[in-house]
Design brief:
Elements: H1 2-32, H2 39-56, H3 61-85, H4 93-114, E1 132-135, E2 138-141, H5 142-164, H6 166-176, H7 178-183, H8 188-214, H9 219-223, H10 225-235, H11 241-261, H12 275-286, H13 308-326, H14 332-357, H15 365-379, H16 385-403, H17 411-430, E3 440-441, H18 455-478, H19 480-490, H20 492-497, H21 502-528, E4 530-531, H22 540-551, H23 556-573, H24 584-594, H25 602-621, H26 644-648
Antiparallel strand pairs: 1-2, 3-4
């Protein structure tokens, strides 16, 4: 009984940290409609700032807490809402997701730059390590009681704020009807800023408590603490604070009881860290999904889709340019990095097909890339081309299996479920030494009668694979399947009403995209020749999605340029910078992603828009009578771009 009480109190303390973090997440979502993936990153930055003041600058603990929780964190939340969140359309899940994930990645880069990794950075407990009380034979630290008391205080305070104060009632009114609140003299944007200030302070408090109880500051652990809070927040349907607290307590108690009463060995030894992820899956797949305001990935101005002849001509031109550029690449390192970039570009094509064309948000494509690399080494030790085909087929089946339990999930729910799958894949598969050893060999692709031993030949072969896949997904986009995908992205309910088989469409879409990701992973592994579990940490997959969005998730060129940016641009720039700026790649990627709030179509979309504005002027000067008309030319599938919609009206 004594042991049970000890485990229970410890579990409640863990659940209290989850509850504080999840509550901040719910507060910001309910007022703005934007799910803040960077909520944990906010807590991480504030925890490091608290360490800077408390330990490095020798501030007293109360003064440091006041500065962080009541000054720095609220200002950070207000600034985030004003600069990044306010311009967003809450109905565009894709853009809001990318912007907040971009803020997360940028925060990682800032933390690594300002506070380089060291082994001696810890936050002391509020009353020291020897401050405890005895309860039924258990030594309970003051820190745990303080954590539980703060969680209770947060719950009571928020309940009082939302139901007993004018400001709280107004904040609830913003949730129900923002335009009506404005018409009645309210200030919706000020209330949004207030909610983000409260959310940032709660995230900071959770980060400080977590780092104090864990005995150290770890950038990734604190940043992805919010993943554990996702499950609690979703149990409360992102609006009920009591259910959110209940879910957090269930998580904390389950984790503590599992550690204390269940002996886990082998691959099950990693079950405790991913227990919240299993809980998240259960909530997403068992409970009836609530209709979220952020419903689908949309693109405000889709790029024109080229015809088959133009696609083939562009593919041939790309291969000719690749063959020409290879003649000027003499360094083996540069050629290898270019090969990595093209292989990552192939994986990026899966994002273009799945998200850009299908509107289905997945954060697990990097996991399928890693599975493709590992599988190719196992199925084709000699690098035979049939092994590449087998990888595509197996990954397609795996993608369909993963999609099966998530068929009724869309938008934010689908993004969270795929992120959970990526975490499970890493903890329960890639990190297992009996599955992926210290270094697993992956061969180069071998074609009968053709030698790809040279780096240039391997690079050109990857360019051929990229061109084939790019032409293929453009053909899908032009055909009836592409029109169905676009219609499903715009309104799945309308498509279902018209008799479309959305289940089959979603299965085929996931199968095709994961097959492409698996082939890209096999090519990437062949360039690396050896892969380890560290190559496939699920956090790395976020940068892949971000970079494709930054360049343009509706264009195969965006996938290619994104892959080359990750593998070629940053390695050529960062090594020449001072060591403190070694994480500049993360900062630049995050900055590019947060800029999508004002330019959702990415760099290629901006270039296309600029060309559409300039083209009529150039055409008129050259005497082209057709180009003097507005941009009313229909796409190959009957869609109209530019001002054509207005002309039709």
């Amino acid at each position: 009984m004594d042991v049970f009480i000890g485990y229970t109190i410890a579990g409640i303390a863990i659940g209290a940290v989850y509850a504080i973090a999840a509550t901040g997440l719910v507060v910001t979502y309910t007022t703005s409609g934007v799910f803040n993936f960077a909520h944990g990153a906010t807590g991480m930055l504030m925890a490091f700032l608290y360490w800077q003041l408390r330990v490095h600058q020798h501030w007293a603990a109360p003064a440091a807490l006041v500065m962080v929780l009541l000054v720095a964190a609220p200002l950070y939340g207000v600034l985030t809402e004003r600069v990044l969140i306010r311009p967003l359309d809450p109905g565009d899940t894709g853009t809001t997701m990318v912007v907040t994930i971009g803020l997360l990645v940028m925060s990682l880069g800032v933390a690594y730059t300002v506070w380089p990794v060291t082994a001696d950075r810890t936050i002391p407990s509020f009353y020291g390590p020897y401050a405890f009380v005895r309860l039924f034979g258990n030594r309970i630290p003051y820190q745990e009681f303080i954590t539980i008391g703060l969680a209770a205080a947060v719950a009571v305070s928020l309940r009082f704020l939302f139901f007993r104060t004018r400001i709280g009632v107004a904040m609830r009114g913003v949730v129900d009807d923002r335009p009506l609140m404005a018409l009645n003299g309210g200030y919706p944007y000020r209330l949004n800023a207030l909610s983000w200030a409260i959310g940032a302070s709660l995230g900071a408090l959770a980060g400080i408590l977590q780092s104090g109880s864990a005995g150290g500051l770890q950038v990734l652990d604190l940043t992805f603490l919010v993943v554990n809070a996702y499950a609690a927040a979703l149990l409360g349907r992102l609006k009920s604070l009591p259910l959110t607290f209940a879910g957090a307590m269930i998580l904390g108690l389950a984790a503590q009881y599992l550690t204390g009463y269940v002996t886990l060995s082998g691959w099950l030894s990693n079950l405790k860290p991913v227990l919240p992820t299993f809980f998240l899956f259960a909530i997403l797949l068992i409970l009836r999904p609530v209709r979220l305001r952020a419903g689908a990935a949309t693109v405000t101005n889709a790029l024109r889709v080229p015809s088959l002849s133009r696609s083939l001509a562009s593919g041939a031109a790309f291969l000719a340019a690749a063959a020409l550029v290879e003649q000027f690449l003499h360094g083996g390192v540069v050629i290898g990095e270019a090969s990595e970039g093209v292989a990552i570009g192939v994986v990026g094509l899966s994002v273009v097909l799945l998200t850009g064309y299908g509107g289905q948000i997945s954060l697990a494509q990097y996991a399928f890339m890693g599975f493709g690399a590992w599988l190719f080494g196992k199925l084709a030790p000699g690098g035979g081309i049939l092994g590449l085909v087998a990888v595509a087929l197996v990954c397609a089946v795996l993608g369909a299996i993963v999609a099966l339990p998530a068929l009724r999930l869309t938008g934010l729910y689908l993004a969270l479920s795929t992120l959970a799958f990526a975490e499970l894949a890493y903890d329960l598969f890639f990190s297992q030494t009996n599955i992926m050893g210290a270094e697993d060999a992956v061969p180069r692709v071998h074609l009968p009668g053709v030698s790809l031993a040279g780096s240039k030949a391997e690079l050109f072969f990857e360019c051929v694979v990229f061109a084939i896949f790019a032409v293929g997904i453009l053909a899908i986009r032009r055909g009836s399947m592409g029109r169905l995908l676009m219609a499903t992205r715009d309104s799945s309910a309308a498509c279902a009403t018209l008799g479309a088989n959305l289940t089959l469409v979603k299965l085929l879409l996931f199968a095709a995209s994961t097959a492409i990701a698996g082939v890209g992973g096999a090519l990437w592994g062949g360039v690396e020749r050896e892969v380890t579990s560290l190559d496939f940490e699920y956090q790395l997959g976020l940068s892949l999605v971000l970079i494709v969005y930054i360049w343009g998730c509706c264009s195969p060129a965006g996938a290619l340029l994104g892959g080359l940016s990750l593998s070629l641009l940053y390695p050529q720039i960062v090594p020449h910078l001072p060591s403190r700026w070694s994480q500049l790649g993360l900062i630049l990627t995050g900055l590019g992603a947060v800029s999508l709030g004002r330019n959702p179509n990415g760099i290629i979309g901006q270039i296309s828009d600029g060309w559409q504005r300039v083209r009529p002027r150039l055409g008129g000067r050259l005497g082209d009578p057709v180009s003097r008309w507005p941009a009313t030319l229909p796409q190959s599938d009957g869609e109209v771009v530019g001002v054509a919609a207005a002309a039709d009206g």
